[in-house]
Amino acid sequence: MAESGSKSSEESFENVDTSLEERAELLDKTQWAGDFEWHQIEAIVKYMRVKRVPKGFVLFKEGMIEAFMCLILEGMVRIEKEDEKGSRKSVAVLGAGQMIGEMSLFNEEPRSASAIALKDTTFLLFRREDFERLSKEAPLLALKVLTRIIKLLGERLRRTSGVLADYL
Predict the structure, then answer these.
(1) If one looks up domain 9-129 in CATH, what number appears?
(2) Which contacts of 158-167 are long-range, i.e. CB under 8 A and separated by 24 or more positions?
(3) Where along the chain do its domains lie?
(4) Which position has the higher pLDDT, 109 or 166?
(5) Cα distances (Å, whole numbers) of residue 117 to 48, 110, 122
(6) Are 9 and 2 in contact (CB under 8 A)?
(7) pTM score of the predicted model
């Protein structure tokens, strides 16, 4: 994991050289893309890059400020949160088709958890500046992307509320 003063985690992700068509095909295979038509998928991936990290790599650390979302294409990522005693607790394990880090696109708050690759992991990277550019260049498509993210966040919140209710 990059420390302050060195390059950020985003900058240390391995680039995977792909064409626009290849990125569109990769996105189209995910459940995330289910609400989009092919021409919209082609437009969205102009703002995304394919990246890869090895098993054990920390994609982001709780408290970081970097603003990017990852849409997992292949591999597995564990989400960890530090408890009040400083112990790391696993709160989720996410795989292909799932997104991580999406809240950072819309707020400037520090990361609420850490994300660690459990396997070699390939993902589409979508940075805040990419989303802002999409919003200016294709506002209706950006709204549809935002709606998709909100829908998935709502589903995640419902699951979390159910687990919390079981503990109360």
Answers:
(1) 2.60.120.10
(2) none
(3) 9-129
(4) 109
(5) 20, 20, 10
(6) yes
(7) 0.86
